[in-house]
Design goal:
With about 525 residues, the chain is an alpha/beta fold. The chain has two domains: about 210 residues, 3-Layer(aba) Sandwich (Rossmann fold), CATH 3.40.50.300; about 200 residues, Class I glutamine amidotransferase (GATase) domain (Rossmann fold, 3-Layer(aba) Sandwich). About 30% of the residues lie in helices and about 30% in strands. It is built from 16 helices and 28 strands. The strands form seven sheets. It has a six-stranded parallel β-sheet, sandwiched between helices. The protein is globular.
Length: about 525
């Protein structure tokens, strides 16, 4: 018999499905239950690398860590990485499987159903329970025929479904009712109940609304999870990453001065999580920016990764941000480029992979004497090696995900990995293809001490900031909140059920009734 499994779906994107699954994973793992996460199809440019060199969504990597597991491509068998408004790179079981338009993918998705169900079956044969996360809204009726992530998955694998709604944005009661009513009768029968997420206020005032949901739908609200202000790591789809937004919860500086970090909010931003480790440091304020003036006044400028490097470089120039970077550099700021950002700092970028139709090399920002040429084969690998930075030897862990390859590098290496030069360094300008560098505590401290502190008198680097410990603290916060709000034993029992859970809600033009 396959192990129990349940689908945590949502009324909308960003309802909190990833957080609920991560919290449930951690809470069940703390009870000694063998649990695994699963997201059939994810759309995100925030990805992580598995030990065997595959890619999965970063949220699923965090959920795996919550279970005490290493990231595995089984946890997210289909990953879409948008390169434009119309096309996405398709990653199947961790490997690139072409680029496709939204219309074409709608047709192809039906053929991926076997990939998805096989991966889930393998997990159900290995673990005690599998917690599946839906994608977007459960009621995407226009996509239902080829759906593999929400009710289509529930149908294929005979899964019960819990629907999460975000009350902080308002309208959650109507969202519950409308989501259920939009589903066909067979899909409705799989919906076991609802979960309210991100609640602020007096619970007694919400109680009549919860009673109304149960009376109107025949299904109860299993719990109300409070708004957790302390959660901000490993964001998945970047809905909260808007220009002007501050990363995390800045803590007071240990010295006399704050460090102002401007992270450029690129249109096709990828692996935005690279700056989160910086934001964990006391006295470091990281803000997302998209204007030259905000860049020009920063102490440290970060050009993050991009799923469309040439296109985002054109955008950056069109907004005059290149001039802002140069102004900041001349004023003494430190400039750091990571992956696509590193490529933008180069002399030339020759891209015929992501920049479809591009003809020949385009000029980079020319702040590093490096030439980049894109290769059809993507480099996807983890890094775990001895490295050096500013003459100090440290352990470096991270990962690489990029098509762009360094063809020529006339600069000093940013750092050395097992004796191999990596990245580039000229004065106060640094670039590297490695994601996750700042999450290395020793490496980050050395970088801030040697590259930043001389330029920012009065800023002091804390000696005890531990990024991994902070990440797991936030995972435990999720688990504590979920365990306090929900009956875990009841959810496990639901995961074992294959029965109908409530009446069908019918809609016509003039009336609404249950039957």
């Amino acid at each position: 018999m396959p192990a129990p499994a349940i689908l945590i779906a949502g009324t909308t994107s960003d309802a909190g499905k990833s957080m609920v699954v991560a919290g449930l994973c951690r809470a069940l793992a703390r009870r000694g239950i063998s649990v695994a996460p699963f997201k059939a199809q994810n759309m995100s440019n925030n990805s992580a690398v598995t030990a065997d060199g595959g890619e999965i969504g970063r949220a699923q990597a965090l959920q795996a860590e919550a279970c005490g597991l290493a990231p595995n491509t089984l946890f997210n068998p289909v990953l879409l990485k948008p390169g434009s408004d119309r096309r996405s790179q398709v990653v199947v079981r961790g490997k690139v499987s072409g680029s496709i338009s939204a219309a074409d993918y709608h047709e192809r998705r039906a053929h991926l159903r076997t990939v998805v169900t096989d991966a889930l079956d393998e997990l159900r044969a290995t673990f005690d329970i599998v917690l599946c996360e839906g994608a977007g809204s459960a009621a995407e009726v226009n996509l239902r025929d080829s759906d593999i992530a929400n009710m289509g998955l529930a149908e294929s694998a005979n899964l019960p479904v819990l629907i999460v709604g975000d009350i902080d944005r308002g309208g959650v009661l109507a969202h519950f009712l409308g989501t259920l009513a939009a589903l066909e009768a067979e899909d409705q029968s799989r919906v076991a109940g609802f979960i309210v997420n991100k609640f602020r206020g007096e619970l007694s005032l919400l109680k009549p609304g919860l009673d109304w949901v149960e009376k109107s739908t025949g299904r109860g609200v299993l719990g109300v999870i409070p708004f957790l202000t302390d959660l901000w790591i490993d964001t998945e789809d970047g809905l909260g990453i808007t220009p002007g937004a501050t990363v995390g919860r800045p803590r007071a500086p240990e010295g006399k001065r704050w460090l102002d970090v401007a992270a450029i909010r690129l249109p096709r931003l990828s692996n935005s999580t690279d700056v989160e480790a910086l934001a964990m440091e006391p006295g470091v304020r990281v803000r997302w920016v998209d204007s030259p003036s905000e860049v020009a006044t920063a102490d440290l400028v970060v050009l993050p990764g991009s799923k469309s490097t040439v296109s985002d470089l054109e955008w950056l120039r069109a907004r005059g941000i290149d001039a802002g970077i140069e102004e900041a550099r001349r004023a003494g700021a430190v400039i750091v480029g990571i992956c696509g950002g590193f490529q933008m700092l180069s002399r030339h970028i020759d891209d015929v992979v992501e920049a479809r139709g591009a003809q020949g090399p385009v000029p980079g920002l020319d702040l590093l004497p490096v030439d980049i040429k894109f290769a059809p084969e993507k480099t996807v690998r983890t890094i775990d090696a001895a490295g050096t930075i500013f003459g100090s030897e440290v352990r470096v862990r991270g990962y690489e995900i990029h098509h762009g390859q360094v063809q020529r590098n006339d600069a000093a290496a940013f750092h050395a990995i097992d004796g191999r030069g990596e990245g580039a360094c000229v004065g106060r300008v640094f670039g590297s293809h490695i994601h996750g560098l700042f999450a290395n505590d020793e490496w980050r401290r050395e970088f801030l001490r040697e590259a930043v502190m001389p330029q920012v008198p009065g800023f002091c680097v804390a000696a005890d900031t531990q990024v991994e410990a902070e990440r797991m603290r936030q995972v435990d916060v999720m688990a504590d909140a979920v365990e306090a709000a929900l009956d875990l034993d009841r959810i496990v029992q639901m995961a074992s059920a294959a029965a109908r859970f409530g009446p069908t809600l019918r809609i016509d033009r003039d009336a609404q009734s249950t039957g």
